Amino acid sequence: MLLFAFAAYPLKSPIPVDLFLRADPLIALSAMVSLRQLVFPLVWFALPLVVLGLLMGRAFCGWICPMGTAIDLSERVLGIRGRRPDRAPQWRRVKFYLLAALVVTMLIPAAHRSAEELALSESVGLSAVYLLDPIALLTRTFALAVLPAVQWLLVLASDTATMWAYTDFAEAHPWVLRLLDPVQLGLGTVARPVYFRLGLVAFAMFGGMVALGGLARRFWCRNLCPLGALFAILGKASPISLAVSDKCTRCLQCVNECKVGAITEDPHEYRAAECIHCYSCLAVCPEQAISLTVRGEATGRKDELELSRRRVLQATGLGLVAAVLPKVGWGARRSEAGVLKISGAKLIRPPGARAEDAFVTACVRCGECMKVCPTNALQPALGEGGLEALGTPILVPRIGPCTEPCNLCGQVCPTRAIEPFEIEEKRHLYLGTAMIDRSQCLAWAADRLCLVCDEACSYDAISQVTIDGVDRPLVNDRICVGCGICERVCPVQPQGAIHVYATGDKRDWGREAQRAWREAVEQEGASGSPYPGV
Amino acid sequence: MSRDRISRREFMKRAAALGLSAYGLSRLGVFGAAEGGASAEAASGATLVVASNRPPAQLVRAAVQGLGGMQRFVSSGDSVLVKPNIGWARRPEQGATTNPEIVAEVVRLCLQAGASQVKVMDHAVDRPDALLLRMTGIGPAAQAAGATVRMASSQAMYQSMSLPRGRVLRTTQVLRDLQRADVFINVPVAKVHGSTGLTLGCKNLMGVVWDRGAWHGSESLDQCLADFAAHVRPDLVILDAVRTLMSNGPKGPGRLEEPGLVVAGSDPLAVDSYGATLFGRRGDQVGHLTRAHALGVGEIDLERVRIQRV
């Protein structure tokens, strides 16, 4: 969690800020199955946890998982005590069914494609893992809700200190000034509050997970978490076991203490796959009757997952529904003739983002890119990209531009939905195109002296034309990459008179074609059409 | 220090009081009256020093020396506000922001003259602040020279100020640090500018204002600049013309020239008029300078200015 706070400009954390996300085998599985390709950074990062899973099953859940830690802490702080013992232990199977449903969504093609198109396409699967992966859920909660709240308080403190610093008393006493200086108080870099759409929704999801703890301790972990289910499956044959000796008096303290209900009503038996290796049972046993052994000597170990075949089939159906619903309902996207159509005019993706289908598939909505974006410009999509793109990052220029000398989002994306890119590449990574609304523009509509969009443009994509003695801005749509700084600085309140639209989005061309196109534009000057066969 | 110098704070108070009460004084110039001799100096010919043929820091040193040294402007114990252009995420060699060596040298001179505190501040257009400070080089350079460097990005740092003599702009939110400083030094960089033709000292003052968008939306941006210049007068203007951005200003990237000059003076309009000549124009060919002249901000005719070259 601390690690996560490091994901800020300038990026200088010694370890990857998205370490947990990258190491998460469920995210790796989802990204690779839905993309139908190996993503090597994910393979290497996920490998250690897969090995841990093979050796010790759900030990990750007990010792490493930040969501487990957050839930444990919240339950303690809020005094939530689940009923003991768990009255509905059969619910623990739900997580396996959810995992099955997720895998089905990964397999269902995301779009209707001809065989030819499928060969061209780099992506065919759909990913719903963002809904249920605990690491993505927690990172999102932190990015969109918790840290903005903390930052808001810091800004409040900073502004209050600033106001006090302007009093005569403070000015007469240098030590008071020093004390009130936001920078020296460590608040200097948070001059602006950040805010996110869907922040409350993300927080409500987390809050719901914690609240379920009222039914049973770590309700989420024991019953719902698909990542936990994955570790449970991996750990079916784990060599490390618990053994109960004859000293056991059946006091059942271990059964009550077990955070995930892994010990059955008969304390000599436990579900090895469920055990999170927290060893609370060892600590709580008054007779010290429980010990760690290697596999063969354990007699009470139950390896069977006890899943129902019918339920697995039902889960498959659920996955199918989840995959198909976004295609037929509100905000559905369409692909036509190999050229991707995008549903929303304001669907502006960060630079380096893969073509839309692959992007939506790979993105786990963890919020890292939004957290790291120095201008607060990246926001969770609402309906711009259809239902399946809910919560994926889009650029909202009126909040902030994609500031030119920055490539942080590409550096922190754990699944390479946003691929790493160099700052120099940004001049040919076309996110969209700015268009001037001449009915609102101060220069066009009111003959005012205003070329703020031209002044702020980082790429010299806005020029001016003098009509009736007044200079008026024009956008060169072949140079404009859609960074949105013009929309951000436009003084027309509240909506601005220049807007970036997805019209010029050229992600589906690939980077090389975009670069070549930009070079052609430069060579041909202001006239001529350099479109390479498009 | 032969002039009857007063603190900036006191100057603001008096200016506001005079402006509200004495309409008849406007022709003479309220600020000239309050500063006790500034307008007389303009009429008798303001003084400019143009320094050349040196590295940037020494240009500043020579120019200020030519004006009589920094102690003429900064007294022991003064609080000084230095306002460079840190508006854009550009490197120094792109000519869109003030040369960091020049800013650092101004800071050093102020401290040597006995300033108790030197603040370097600007209200940038680009974001984020940390990047601007690092990229322009001004953050580390000014800090190393002993200044407190702050980006004025929070509205809490601004306070409403009335501009009684403004023709279009009657009130605007101005950086509190400016309103409280004893000495205000404007350190612009000379560039062409989309909206206003050129950006020199008067235009650089827009970076101590909170709601600049309202100026663009007003009846006349040029008049807003003039109105503001008539009420907020720097004690010293040091114009960075080491590199000048000749096209696609104010942010660039554009064509650069290297006049290698620093122009210093206490008459803001005289400095800007000289700056205009670097772009092949006269001061009275720049809209906001002409309007500022009409409000008695200073001397626009270089024939009437004593120019000392060092």
What report would you give on this structure?
By secondary structure, chain A is mostly helical. Chain A is built from 24 helices and twelve strands. In chain A, a hairpin with a 2-residue loop joins strand 10 and strand 11 (470-475). In chain A, helix 4 crosses helix 14 and helix 7 crosses helix 17 (309-328). The radius of gyration of chain A is 27 Å and the shape is globular. The radius of gyration of chain B is 17 Å and the shape is globular. Chain B has helices spanning 8-21, 30-35, 38-43, 56-66, 100-112, 129-136, 138-145, 176-180, 201-204, 213-217, 221-231, 268-277, 287-294; strands at 47-51, 79-84, 117-122, 148-151, 158-162, 171-175, 183-187, 189-193, 197-199, 236-245, 256-257, 261-265, 306-309. The two termini of chain B are 22 Å apart. Chain B has one domain (8-309): 3-Layer(aba) Sandwich (Rossmann fold), CATH 3.40.50. The model of chain B is unreliable at 22-44 (pLDDT under 50). In chain B, strand 5 (158-162) and strand 6 (171-175) form a beta hairpin. The A-B interface holds A 9-10, 155, 158-160, 162-163, 166, 171, 174, 181, 183, 188-189, 191-192, 374-375, 400-401, 403-406, 442, 448-452, 454-458, 460, 464, 471, 485, 489, 491-493 and B 79, 89, 117, 125-131, 134-135, 148, 150-151, 153-154, 156-157, 159, 176, 180, 193-196, 212-214, 216-222, 248-254, 287.
Short description:
The complex is a heterodimer of chains A (534) and B (310). Chain A has helices at 2-5, 19-23, 25-35, 40-56, 59-63, 66-78, 94-107, 115-120, 134-165, 168-172, 174-180, 199-211, 219-224, 226-234, 253-257, 280-284, 309-328, 356-362, 368-372, 408-412, 442-446, 452-456, 485-489, 511-524; strands at residues 240-244, 270-271, 290-294, 301-302, 335-336, 339-340, 378-380, 393-395, 433-436, 462-467, 470-475, 498-501.
